[in-house]
Amino acid sequence: MTVRTEHPITPREGVEAAVAAIEDLRGRELRVLDLRGLSEATDYFVIASGTSDAHVRGIADSVVEKLHRRGARAHHVEGLPGGRWVLLDFVDFVVHLFHPETRSFYQLERLWGDAPEIKTGA
Question: Which of 25, 85, 110, 120 is least enclosed, having the fewest CB within 10 Å?
């Protein structure tokens, strides 16, 4: 995938900023999956859990704000009011933030088991 011109940062820089925002608010079970070559839709999935609906919403707000400060804007946001599963689509990468029960139910890591995991600082 190519970097869209409205994004002043690369997809990898966006992923790193999202990871930093998640780590700042103590998101749990943080994983980054490299989907390049496996998906036409996006290059990376960033997946993490919060401890409650409010925690998930707080992490999502932090990710959006941190990326906004870097000039990147979410193309699409889903689930923010509920906080069970928030999806932040930045086109070249997608951030999935889950309540633990919801994450266990959907098992995105298992669904994308062929995707290599990128190690994060956490």
Answer: 110
